[in-house]
Design brief:
This protein is mainly α. Residues 1301-1311 have a biased composition (Acidic residues).
């Protein structure tokens, strides 16, 4: 029966007209059609033709047809949802239904859509296949213009669609169909508002899904975002994963048991990686999405939002693979990194800011977290990481080299942030290198390329990175050996410093790879014969490095050497016996190659002697060969006859080529290193060979005899023997003068070397110490002659001591013996040296020189000068002695006894201590606890139980108390006995030590209170001392609380001391700080307080900017805005208090009769900054006034205060400055010559230049106050008096008067010989100037 029905329907449908088909369909019962459809479809038979026929016979123009069509449509939807249909049949039905949807009237479409929404709400969907029809139905509905019944009212098609989407998004979605429902919206035309509704709904669902379900949903969401609301999509995704990361980190850092219930790290990272790929793919297709991402992250970076997080940074780094965004992304990341470091630095330097701004995660930490996370197959991030690392190192590495020193071009705050950014770049590359194998080759290539191609700029940071990379994975680099050997080919063309750094870095590789070592040796041998001096130096450096690092069998252990080889190379020593035997031959070959250097320039020879000493201690088996080489070299310049004076052939050490005179043999350095090699050999090697035959030991006896003979003959020699007496020529302009200078330098060097040799072999013998003193007298005589000659000539070398050849270890031992050795048996012999104040002063001066070298270069000259550990040990010993000497023998005691020229020893000791405390904090920050223990004398001995737990703060505080006592003693002395130099040094020492105190500790507060007390009670008219003491006060105060009240008090003192700009007003003297007096008030204290006020304004400005960005990121609704920044926001309150107190500070200074010059100039600039900051605050409240909360009362008070206490006085001060300038100009014209007048005018111009800027700043402030008054409906201008001082109208009568005066003056100055025309010319110039 049903089969016939179907055949009839199909045959009628084949006719041209559908009338008969319509009539037949009307005769059928309602359920017959639908039941037949169901049966056929479920059996898997094609129902497409039947459906087409039914729809053809059910036109929407008739009500019955519409109903039938609706019923069949609904039936098909149910069929699709039942899940009983075969796949092909279901697809066919969906296709047909899609085509027919547009024929429905609007009311039916609304009903159909409501059925879908109802099914979603109730969760009755089974397969979700029918959801493919919903976008078609909604699209069709949107095209209906007529009003349709919807709910209780009537809406047009577009509005109905909006309501349906609203209802759909407000209902709960079954987890199973979330992706289908989201995907559906991509086919619906949506308005911006509708897209926002959909996006918000999907983002809310994220937290309810399993991790693995999120990537496909994000993909669909990104497709929907092409219709709009891109910002919300990106914001939502980033915020969700940021929160997820935080939870994950908290759970992992907390109880380990939680790991059982949390998501594994690997799963989370893989999901994040997939989502990042989806977003990058979407950005490739939709550039607008990329632009939105950058805009969103830039806004977040400026404000306080959490936009920059590990996830968003990883996303940005992946986006760098898209060429059009690459540069913008790296610029964004660079800015964010440097800003993060600057903000951190600003916070660390101000307690005021620390109390207001919460601690936030640093961008650098986030980037390092991205590297750690990238191990989970984030290959798309690694390339960006590598590029970012190199960009940071290239952009923020050191920029210039001057005289071998690296010069930083940027200023203080940015310099440190730049250095940190460069270090971060290196860290990024190192960590990425460790984790990702595929990128290693590229990192190495880029590092090597920079080392080779950037010869002129400093590349220490790249060499350090290379060293770290090789240390962490030397075996990995064997695969890149070709790149390393290729770099070796350029060694001859690179600067010496680069070569040394490079070879030191690759040294572990030379132990692993024989081929690499052979390549290097070939290159070095070629370089040894090169014509360039630097190439030959590089060859010598390379060979010496090889000698040091290839141990010969039987050599002493590396613990006795200056540098350890490193743990990573332990694997190399597998065949150590074979290596050691082979190494000996290899090392002897190298020594033969190096002997060629003995005939080269002085610089190469010097490097060789220094290197031999290091090699000897690393490879003691080479001692014989090295010592013989040095001995034969010395014999060339040694006079063997025992009675011949002088004992050395100085002529042979100087090379004369035409007019050019140069040093050929650094004989003093040769002797120096021979002495050290000999000393080391006798103390370390000989005790082990006591039973051996003495044949081989002949060389050391020869050397001892020679040094002894040189000593005796040097003592007997007079300056005339060297032809270096007072009558000799020492000028730098003649060849004889240059030669004499070189010879004098050699003789003084030899004396120093012999002093050290004789002291070390003396065993506290009185005779030896007498010889030491005689040698010093020889040194001193020559030094005095040179000083005298230099004093007469133009060159000021008198006070500059040439680099001493004494080793730092010897200086330490000598000072200990001179000042601390109280052994009874040593007393008599040491009294010989102690009797000479000059000698003791010389010893302390050399110690100072060594510490100065350390501060400037990071190392010292002489043996072990490059070994940080030994330098540190020597520094500790020297500090202990200097500290004892200074505290035991005060300067006042020493100076009252003897009146000798030059600084006293105690003062030199103090100077040394000041330099040492500064250098230790610069180079040995990590060893400060050990350093302070050494000063207490508890470093080596077992610490007492009570001292074991002492903190750095407690130990530093103990040292501080000693120096405080010294300063108090100095201040309590008579004014004529006050030693300004000593006082300044003491304050500098206290300043250095106070940096070691924890700002929250009671010791810090105590130090601050003490400093304030000193400033309050001491009235010294010493500007330099006042400046250093005030600097100490401010540096402590900012770490305790804001210094604004301190500034206000000081400004009152300055006003009291200097008087008022109105001479009729008598100012009451406040005397908060006795240190502020007539001599110190200006410019010293005035400039200091203004500079401090500038810093406070900078901090306030930073806070206002932060608040403004916060407000700009909040929603515009009134409720949200009023919640965002509560009326009693502590930051706002703090800003207003700071500015209010600063206002009273400026109120005092603008009434002060400041002297012309820097004080007036700086005050005008700072006033300008003050008004700019006030304007910024007014503009912030202009933004805030969008909310209903209005302006706080304390802001109104601040505005009132500025109108009554500052602005009118600023104009008075401007008049005062201009009148003073005019007075200066007119008196200058009458009394001085034209040149003097022009100088005065230039100064006046300089002083008055900031005046227009200040007036503009005041006007801007008043302009924005007017705007704010209108918006807030509060009259803020009632306290502001508009001044007439800003009227720049030229007053004719005054101008004529000035011009007449000018002409009269010129007539007076004119001489009889000059023509009238010449007299008139300057007047014309004046006229031009005034017009």
């Amino acid at each position: 029966m049903r089969a016939k029905m179907e055949q009839k329907i199909l045959s009628l449908a084949a006719e041209r007209t559908a009338n008969k088909l319509q009539e037949f369909l009307q005769t059928l019962k309602e359920d017959d059609l639908t039941n037949h459809l169901k049966n056929q479809a479920v059996k898997g038979r094609a129902v497409g033709a039947l459906l087409r026929a039914i729809f053809k016979g059910s036109p929407c123009s008739e009500e019955a047809g519409t109903l039938r069509r609706h019923k069949v449509y609904s039936c098909c939807i149910q069929l699709l949802e039942s899940g009983d249909l075969p796949k092909e049949v279901a697809s066919e039905i969906v296709g047909l239904l899609m085509l027919e949807a547009h024929h429905f009237p609007g009311s039916v479409l609304v009903e159909l859509a409501n059925e879908f929404v109802g099914a979603v709400k109730e969760g009755t969907l089974v397969t979700g296949k029918s959801l493919e029809l919903l976008p078609i139905i909604l699209t069709a509905l949107a095209t209906k213009k007529e009003n349709l019944a919807y709910g209780k009212g009537e809406l047009n098609g577009e509005e109905c669609k909006k309501q349906l989407i609203n209802t759909l998004c407000s209902s709960r979605w079954n987890q199973q169909y979330i992706i289908q429902l989201t995907s559906m919206f991509k086919d619906v035309p949506l308005t911006a508002e509708e897209v926002e509704i959909v996006v918000e709904k999907v983002l809310r669902i994220f937290s309810k899904l399993n991790l693995q379900e999120i990537p496909p949903l994000v993909y669909q969401l990104l497709v929907v975002s092409s219709k709009g609301s891109r910002k919300n999509v990106l914001e939502g995704i980033i915020a969700f994963f940021n929160e997820l990361d935080k939870q994950h980190n908290e759970e992992h850092s907390g109880d380990k048991l939680l790991d059982l219930v949390t998501v594994p790290s690997s799963e989370l990272r893989h999901v994040e990686g997939t989502i990042i790929l989806h977003i990058v793919f979407a950005i490739k297709l939709d550039c607008e999405l990329g632009r939105e991402l950058l805009k969103h992250l830039k806004a977040g970076q400026q404000g306080d939002s959490n936009n920059l997080c590990p996830f968003s940074i990883a996303l940005l780094l992946s986006v760098t693979r898209i060429q059009r965004f690459e540069e913008q992304v790296f610029d964004l990341l660079k800015t964010a990194i440097v800003k993060s470091f600057k903000d951190l630095q600003l916070l660390q330097g101000s307690k005021f800011l620390q109390n207001l701004v919460p601690h936030r995660a640093r961008v650098s930490t986030m980037i390092l977290e991205v590297i750690k996370n990238s191990v989970h197959s984030w290959d798309h991030v690694t390339q960006g990481l590598v590029e970012l690392g190199f960009i940071l190192m290239d952009s923020y590495g050191p920029k210039k080299i001057l005289d071998g020193k690296i010069i930083e071009t940027s200023s203080g705050l940015s310099r440190t942030s730049n250095q940190n950014a460069c270090k971060l770049g290196a860290r990024i590359l190192l960590e990425t290198f460790k984790i990702h194998e595929m990128i290693r080759q590229e990192i190495l290539e880029q590092v090597f390329n920079r080392v080779v191609t950037r010869a002129s700029s400093p590349i220490n940071h790249f060499l350090d990175l290379l060293s770290d990379i090789i240390t962490c994975a030397p075996l990995v680099l064997q695969n890149c050996s070709s790149k390393v050997t290729e770099t070796f080919d350029y060694l001859s063309f690179l600067p010496l410093q680069t070569v040394q750094g490079l070879l030191k870095a690759v040294q572990p590789l030379l132990k692993i790879s024989m081929s690499m070592r052979d390549s290097l040796i070939l290159v070095l041998r070629k370089a040894m014969f090169a014509s360039q001096l630097d190439a030959r130096k590089s060859a010598a450096a390379g060979f010496l490095l090889l000698l040091k690092n290839f141990k010969v069998l039987g050599s002493l252990s590396s613990s006795q050497c200056s540098q350890s080889i490193g743990v990573s190379q332990v694997s190399v020593e597998v065949h150590s016996r074979y290596n050691s035997v082979a190494n000996e031959t290899f090392c002897l070959e190298i020594i033969d190659s190096l002997k060629r250097c003995l005939g080269q320039q002085a610089d190469v020879r010097l490097m060789l002697y220094e290197g031999f000493y290091d090699v000897l201690r690393r490879n003691s088996q080479l001692a014989s060969s090295i010592m013989q080489t040095l001995l034969s070299q010395l014999k060339q310049f040694y006079e063997p006859k025992p009675d011949l004076l002088p004992p050395l052939k100085l002529e042979a050490c100087v090379l004369t080529q035409g007019d050019q005179i140069s040093l050929q043999e650094p004989l003093d350095c040769l002797l120096c290193y021979i002495q050290h090699c000999l000393s080391w050999y006798k103390s370390r090697v000989m005790p082990l060979h006591q039973g051996d035959e003495e044949e081989e030991e002949g060389f050391y006896q020869d050397l001892d005899d020679m040094l002894e003979s040189i000593t005796n003959r040097m003592i007997k020699s007079e300056l005339e023997d060297f032809e270096l007496d007072k009558s000799a020529d020492f000028s730098q302009s003649t060849s004889i003068g240059i030669k004499n200078n070189i010879c004098a330098s050699l003789v003084m060097g030899v004396c120093e070397v012999l002093i050290e040799y004789n002291f070390s072999v003396s065993n506290f013998s009185k005779n030896k110490f007498e010889e030491v003193l005689s040698l010093f007298m020889c040194y001193k005589k020559l030094s005095d002659v040179l000083s005298e000659k230099a004093g007469k000539g133009r060159t000021k070398m008198a006070n500059k001591m040439s680099d001493s050849l004494l080793s730092m270890k010897f200086v330490s031992d000598l000072l200990t013996a001179l000042f601390r050795d109280s052994t009874q048996s040593h007393e008599e012999s040491l009294s010989v040296l102690r009797s000479s104040t000059e000698f003791m002063r010389y010893a302390v001066n050399v110690a100072l020189q060594k510490v100065q070298q350390l501060k400037e270069l990071g190392h010292v000259s002489g043996p072990d000068g490059q070994n940080p550990d030994k330098i540190f040990q020597n520094i500790c010993d020297i500090t202990r002695v200097l500290l004892w000497r200074y505290t035991s023998v005060p300067t006042s005691v020493e100076e009252s006894g003897k009146k000798e020229k030059g600084k006293s020893i105690s003062l030199l000791c103090l100077e040394g201590l000041q330099k040492i405390f500064s250098a230790v904090q610069q180079f040995y920050e990590h060893k400060i606890p050990q350093f302070l223990r050494a000063l207490d004398g508890t470093d080596k001995e077992g610490e007492e139980e009570g001292e074991a737990g002492l903190s750095v703060t407690q130990r530093a505080s103990f040292q501080i108390r000693q120096f405080q006592r010294s300063l108090l003693n100095l201040l309590s002395s008579q004014e004529e006995d006050f030693n300004s130099k000593e006082a300044i040094l003491l304050v500098n020492v206290l300043s250095s030590l106070s940096k070691l105190l924890e700002p929250s500790s009671p010791q810090f507060v105590q130090m601050l209170s003490w400093t304030i007390k000193i400033c309050k009670e001491n009235n010294l008219e010493d500007a330099s001392f006042c400046k250093s003491l005030m600097n100490l006060l401010f540096s402590l105060h900012v770490l305790y609380k804001s210094p604004v009240t301190l500034l206000r008090d000081l400004s009152q003192d300055i006003h009291g001391q200097l008087g008022d700009i109105d001479q009729d007003i008598e100012v009451e003297k406040t005397n908060h700080f006795a240190m502020v007096n007539l001599r110190t008030a200006a410019p010293t204290v005035c400039l200091l307080v203004l500079s401090q006020a500038e810093k406070v304004l900078e901090e306030v400005d930073w806070l206002i900017t932060k608040l403004k960005r916060q407000v700009s990121q909040e929603p515009l609704s009134e409720e949200a805005s009023s919640q965002a920044t509560p009326p009693n926001d502590p930051t706002e309150k703090a800003i207003i208090v700071q500015l209010g107190t600063l206002l009273t500070f400026f109120h005092e200074l603008v009434q002060t009769a400041l002297p012309s010059g820097s004080c007036v100039d700086t005050l005008l600039k700072d006033l300008c900054k003050m008004y700019t900051t006030l304007t910024a605050l007014v503009r912030y409240y202009f933004q805030v006034c969008r909310s209903s909360r209005g302006i706080p009362k304390n802001m109104e008070k601040l505005v009132k205060l500025s109108g009554s206490h500052l602005t009118p006085l600023c104009y008075s001060f401007i008049s005062y400055v201009q009148n003073k300038s005019n007075g200066l100009t007119h008196t200058g014209e009458k009394k001085k010559k034209t040149a003097a007048v022009s100088t005065a005018m230039a100064r006046v111009l300089r002083e008055t230049k900031p005046i227009p800027n200040l007036i503009f700043a005041i006007e801007q402030y008043e302009k924005f106050l007017i705007h704010l008054s209108k918006r807030s409906k509060v009259n803020l201008m009632q306290h502001m008096k508009l001044s007439t001082s800003r009227d720049f109208k030229i007053k004719g009568n005054i101008l004529d008067m000035v011009l007449r005066e000018d002409e009269e003056d010129e007539d007076e100055e004119g001489t009889a010989t000059e023509h009238g025309r010449q007299n008139k010319e300057p007047a014309k110039k004046k006229q031009k100037c005034l017009s």
